[in-house]
């Protein structure tokens, strides 16, 4: 095979503005597009926001969320929008962005105009940053992600890269544009979202609780960036935030909504707070200077807990030198193992609250779940107090062979034999550590909670997850709270009265019979707290339980956790919330696991792309990969590229699908064998990696791994052909080889198909509908998040005591429930992504440009020729061995 | 009560329509990959007795397209969802490699035709039975060509009829059930099935 034209470094994907990377210092000096400057010089033409008589009632609600709302915002004005939970702040932001009907349906009246025209009239006029970092990511690289809005308004590709680089520089993201958004920390993700909005040159910037999920330092960085950008561009800014401090000194005006979606206070922040601070605090708004609310005192009836508690002060659980690794996988890439927690130790005693703090990415959530046995540590040990440990039949390991090393043998008449000594006396006289216990009737307890069966775990441990919405298991709010008490067989009457008090305390009593999936996010979080405490567990794990709560619900959530502590539970809580930290008995600070690559804080170095979202920071093991970012930045010596990796996605697809004509050509096993030989030969040629550099590893292994499932199909087809084809071995062999010929080319090709590049080619070369292709590739970027969600759904069921440990029917039912949960989660992601995409002009992007090019190269032609060669071999074989 | 159709014009897909189809497709693609691994065992077992019975375990492959259509109710929803599910399972790695794309396309097309025949205005048993049968039949014809060339015509026909019937009945039931569960969970609020649920609650 002739050598294709120049080997491309960006074999895995192409990106806007790669050429800008050659001198990364120059990014700092790039100026944003001329349009901004012009806009700045002509402030009179730029935007004011005008909201007139806005009423919005989503279907299914009896009362409007916003009612007859009036709001005028002058050009360049910066507004902080506050209000109690459920007052419609986020809804108002969506209305200003013109996105109310994007992900919901309902009755809408009144008008919203931006500089006199509806927000939909100019794509990108209103920029929107959402609460959840990373929720709006649409592409696989930073550059592509920022370019998304430009693509939607058909900016030519040549003009994109400067604007993309300028936007990234403006928000202080200095890592390569080919880095994956998945490697960003929470604060960096928010700045990426900001860059994606800024590149569209908005006149209005809307921020929906942009720092709610960030630690204080990171939040301050994000606020600084917003402040700098807003001043520089004279932007009109509306920020929604529960906690006012931090924002107050950079806004001109404070607007407060009440619980019914009306404006109750509006004016300069200082005077408004002076006059109405107390009243606003009483409504639940976090007003700076007003002391944290008192915790709600709760008189909780006892649960009649099944295992009971540990005496005050004794250790409930201890984690020793725990390391937790996560394995993640994305399409077109091999799996990555990342270290979330490295060698951390922690102990929680009865009747104490321990706060687990540290920057995002420090592994707090991972250590929390490992401490409760929700996930097994990769190394190290988690031990629960003896008296809480269940007998070994509750271990997931087989009954009599309690493999748990920490088991406690309580066998009165055991006899031990020591190999070292000659000793067969009772074990108290046998001091050798090597003794072997040969007790016929021993009873073991297993102290390692990750080995416990679902019910055993649920009796001792409870978990308040960060994402409460995905972990709902029941159909009414009351059933949700009673799930675990019922599963572990607590007294129904006692559980019910305890549940009622919990619901009343947390402001959920009126929702007791409502489907918990239809209540608000803050309510779901409170429900998760109630459900965790209902059965009086010895250990409560709470993952950021106060995020998004207003003062009133905060005092209720904290009151419930304090009550659990008083009852004697050990409470372990991860948090950024100073009020929670103040109230903890002890504080454990976690730092991100040490990494061999150069470390960096927010703002970072170019080498930090190996880090993953909030969980993981370090790539310990990367298998063969076709992506530029892995190869060019991670290793000193560049990795060589296989011939196949130089072929574009369309060429690969055509080559692999050209075999579809084979079934019409192949008549017998001889022909099949000849064609198979040709396919394997050509495939192997494609795996050759000429040139200089480190040889890629695992090429053949990858092909074999992909062929393994094909073996199933081949055997199945061969067997049925034998059975129905006259029980002739030759017929069976012919059929089996025919199927083999169909699937072998795919095994060589699939690992090199990158969904995003495939999308570029399908849209630009085959002219498939642009928006359909973009939606498909955006969804394909998220395959990995489905793994995470699936694991989380199963973990929830296990810790709630309803995991199906055995029985095919129960397992099948669980499979169904988890699948529905997965679909609900997927659709929730789709709805948020739709908002983020429409905010960047996607709704009208029927014709758009593409940041990635779709060249047809020599390598593509050669790949197609290879496919045709296989067909030629089939034709020739047919001539030789016909009949 | 008449079925609620998608907002007019039917051909103008909203962003959330596209993304919901796409996410359903990806989720089903992951599920298909898993199903592909466990389905060979029972499938081979019944094939040992009478190969056309393999249809008894093949109908779940078409559920993605049916669900996509029941939720979005716009032209192309079945093909888009089913094809994307096929792409995802092929990229993760199924026994059929990239030829899964062909299966996905013909399956989606069959389902699509069933709903098109009713003008995308009905989303109950009529189009479900027709579309389900066509989807199964199309896939069976593709499989005649690629896998079952050596079967006698009687067996091929038996396979086609059984496949079509299984999809029309079991596939439709599963898709209806899933759609209803999703609607009750509030996940379909922006779509016609979600609105139907709210309408029913309103009475």
The total count of helices of chain B amounts to 8
SSE order of chain B: HHHHHHHH
The pair of chains with the biggest contact is: A-B, 78 and 65 residues
CATH architecture of the domain at 315-408 and 444-589 in chain A: 3-Layer(aba) Sandwich
Radius of gyration of chain A: 31 Å
Quickly count the helices of chain A.
Answer: 26
Structural class of chain A: alpha/beta
CATH H level, superfamily name of the domain at 315-408 and 444-589 in chain A: P-loop containing nucleotide triphosphate hydrolases
Report the CATH topology name of chain B: Arp2/3 complex 21 kDa subunit ARPC3
How many angstroms does the end-to-end distance of chain A come to? 33 Å
List keywords for this structure.
heterodimer, A: alpha/beta, Rossmann fold, 6-stranded mixed β-sheet, 5-stranded parallel β-sheet, 14% strand, B: 203 residues, Arp2/3 complex 21 kDa subunit ARPC3, 8 helices, globular
Task: Characterize the structure shown.
The complex is a heterodimer of chains A (883) and B (203). With 883 residues, chain A is an alpha/beta fold. Among the domains of chain A are: 315-408 and 444-589, Rossmann fold; 628-753, no CATH class; 758-838, no CATH class. Chain A has 26 helices and 20 strands. In chain A, strands 5-6-7-3-8-9 form a six-stranded mixed beta sheet, sandwiched between helices. A five-stranded parallel beta sheet of chain A has the order 16-17-18-12-19, with helices on both faces. In chain A, helix 7 links the parallel strand 6 (204-208) and strand 7 (236-240). In chain A, helix 11 packs parallel to helix 13 (521-533), helix 17 runs antiparallel to helix 21 and helix 19 (669-687) runs parallel beside helix 21 (729-749). Chain A is globular, with a radius of gyration of 31 Å. The two termini of chain A are 33 Å apart. Chain B is mostly helical. Chain B has one domain: Orthogonal Bundle (Arp2/3 complex 21 kDa subunit ARPC3). Chain B has eight helices and no strands. Chain B has helices at residues 15-49, 55-58, 63-72, 77-92, 100-117, 125-146, 153-184, 192-202. In chain B, helix 1 packs antiparallel against helix 3. The two termini of chain B are 12 Å apart. At the A-B interface, helix 17, helix 20, helix 21, helix 23 and helix 25 of A face helix 1, helix 4, helix 7 and helix 8 of B.
């Amino acid at each position: 095979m002739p050598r294709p034209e120049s080997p491309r470094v960006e074999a895995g994907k192409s990106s806007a503005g790669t050429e800008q990377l050659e001198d990364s210092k120059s990014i700092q000096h790039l100026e944003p597009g001329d349009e901004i400057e012009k806009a700045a010089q002509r402030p009179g033409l730029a935007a004011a926001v005008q909201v007139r008589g806005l009423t919005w009632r989503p279907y299914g609600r009896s009362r409007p969320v916003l009612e007859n709302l009036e709001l005028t915002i002058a050009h360049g004005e910066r507004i902080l929008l506050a209000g109690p939970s459920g007052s419609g702040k986020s809804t108002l932001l969506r209305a200003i962005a013109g996105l109310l009907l994007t992900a919901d349906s309902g009755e809408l009246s009144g008008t919203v105009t931006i500089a006199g025209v509806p927000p939909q009239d100019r794509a990108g006029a209103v920029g929107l940053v959402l609460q959840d970092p990373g929720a709006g990511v649409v592409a696989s690289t930073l550059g592509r992600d920022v370019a998304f809005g430009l693509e939607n308004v058909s900016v030519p590709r040549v003009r994109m890269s400067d604007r993309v680089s300028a936007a990234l520089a403006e928000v202080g993201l200095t890592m390569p544009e080919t880095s994956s958004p998945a490697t960003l920390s929470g604060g960096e993700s928010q700045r990426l979202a900001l860059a994606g909005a800024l590149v569209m040159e908005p006149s209005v910037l809307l921020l929906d609780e942009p720092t709610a999920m960030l630690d204080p330092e990171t939040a301050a960085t994000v606020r600084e960036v917003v402040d700098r950008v807003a001043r520089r561009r004279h932007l009109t800014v509306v920020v929604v935030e529960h906690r006012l401090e931090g924002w107050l000194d950079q806004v001109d005006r404070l607007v407060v909504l009440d619980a019914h979606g009306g404006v109750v206070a509006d004016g300069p922040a200082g005077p408004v707070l002076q006059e109405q601070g107390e009243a606003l605090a009483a409504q639940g708004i976090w007003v700076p200077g007003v002391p944290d609310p008192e915790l709600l005192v709760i008189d909780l009836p006892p649960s009649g807990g099944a295992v009971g508690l540990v005496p005050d002060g004794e250790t409930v659980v201890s984690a020793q030198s725990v390391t937790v690794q996560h394995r993640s996988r994305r399409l077109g890439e091999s799996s990555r193992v990342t270290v979330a927690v490295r060698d951390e130790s922690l102990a929680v005693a009865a009747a104490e609250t321990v706060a687990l703090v540290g920057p995002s990415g420090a592994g707090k959530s991972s250590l929390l779940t490992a401490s409760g046995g929700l996930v097994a540590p990769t190394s190290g040990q988690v031990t629960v107090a003896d008296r809480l440990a269940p007998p070994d039949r509750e271990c997931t390991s087989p009954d009599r062979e309690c493999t748990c090393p920490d088991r406690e043998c309580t066998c009165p008449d055991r006899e031990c034999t020591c190999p070292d000594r000659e000793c067969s006396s009772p074990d108290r006289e046998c001091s050798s550590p090597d003794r072997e216990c040969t007790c016929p009737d021993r009873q073991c307890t297993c102290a390692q909670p990750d080995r416990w069966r679902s019910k055993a775990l649920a009796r001792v441990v409870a978990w308040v997850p960060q994402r409460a919405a995905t972990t709902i298991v029941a159909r009414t709010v009351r059933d949700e709270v009673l799930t675990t008490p019922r599963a572990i067989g607590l007294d129904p009457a006692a559980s019910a009265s305890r549940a009622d008090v919990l619901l009343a305390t947390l402001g959920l009593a009126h929702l007791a019979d409502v489907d918990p999936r239809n209540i608000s996010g803050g309510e779901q979080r409170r429900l998760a707290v109630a459900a965790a405490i209902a059965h009086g567990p010895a250990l409560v794990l709470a993952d950021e339980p106060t995020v998004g709560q207003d003062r009133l619900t905060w005092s209720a959530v904290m009151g419930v956790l304090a009550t659990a502590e008083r009852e004697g539970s050990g409470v372990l809580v991860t948090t950024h919330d100073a009020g929670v930290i103040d109230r903890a008995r002890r504080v454990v600070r976690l730092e991100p696991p040490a990494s061999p690559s150069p470390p960096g804080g927010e703002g970072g170095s170019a080498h930090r792309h190996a880090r993953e979202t909030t969980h993981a920071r370090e790539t310990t093991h990367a298998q063969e990969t076709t992506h530029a970012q892995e190869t060019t930045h991670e290793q000193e010596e560049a990795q060589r590229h296989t011939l196949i990796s130089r072929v574009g996605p369309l060429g690969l697809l055509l080559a692999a699908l050209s075999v579809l004509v084979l079934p019409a050509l192949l008549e017998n096993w001889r022909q099949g064998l000849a064609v198979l030989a040709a396919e394997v030969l050509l495939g192997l040629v494609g795996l050759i990696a000429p040139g200089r550099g480190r040889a890629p590893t695992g090429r053949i292994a990858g092909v074999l791994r992909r062929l393994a499932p094909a073996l199933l199909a081949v055997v199945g087809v061969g067997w049925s052909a034998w059975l129905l084809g006259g029980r002739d071995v030759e017929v069976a062999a012919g059929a089996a080889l025919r199927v083999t010929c169909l699937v072998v080319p795919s095994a060589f090709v699939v690992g090199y198909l990158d969904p995003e590049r495939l999308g570029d080619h399908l849209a630009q070369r085959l002219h498939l509908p642009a928006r359909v292709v973009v939606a498909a590739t955006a969804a394909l970027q998220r395959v990995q998040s489905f793994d995470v969600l699936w694991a989380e759904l199963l973990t929830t069921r296990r810790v709630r005591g309803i995991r199906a440990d055995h029985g095919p029917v129960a397992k099948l039912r669980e499979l169904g429930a988890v699948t529905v949960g997965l679909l609900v989660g997927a659709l929730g992601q789709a709805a948020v992504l739709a908002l983020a995409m429409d905010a960047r002009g996607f709704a009208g992007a029927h014709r758009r440009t593409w940041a990635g090019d779709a060249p047809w190269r020599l390598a593509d032609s050669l790949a197609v020729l290879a496919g045709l060669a296989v067909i030629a071999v089939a034709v020739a074989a047919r001539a030789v061995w016909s009949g | 009560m008449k079925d609620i159709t998608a907002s007019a014009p039917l051909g103008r897909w909203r962003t959330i329509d596209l993304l919901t189809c796409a996410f359903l497709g990806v989720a089903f693609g992951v599920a298909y990959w898993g199903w592909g691994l466990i389905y060979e065992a029972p499938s081979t077992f019944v094939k040992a007795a009478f190969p056309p019975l393999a249809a008894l375990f093949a109908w779940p492959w078409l559920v993605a397209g049916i669900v996509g259509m029941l939720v979005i109710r716009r032209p192309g929803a079945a093909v888009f969802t089913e094809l994307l599910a096929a792409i995802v399972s092929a990229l993760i790695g199924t026994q059929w490699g990239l030829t899964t794309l062909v299966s996905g396309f013909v399956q989606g097309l069959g389902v699509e035709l069933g709903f098109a025949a009713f003008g995308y205005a009905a989303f109950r048993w009529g189009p479900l039975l027709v579309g389900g049968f066509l989807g199964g039949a199309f896939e069976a014809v593709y499989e005649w060509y690629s896998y079952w060339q050596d079967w006698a015509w009687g067996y091929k026909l038996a396979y086609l009829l059984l496949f079509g019937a299984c999809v029309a009945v079991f596939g439709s039931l599963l898709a209806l059930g899933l759609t209803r569960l999703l609607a009750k969970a509030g996940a379909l609020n922006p779509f016609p099935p979600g609105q139907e649920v709210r309408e029913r609650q309103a009475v």
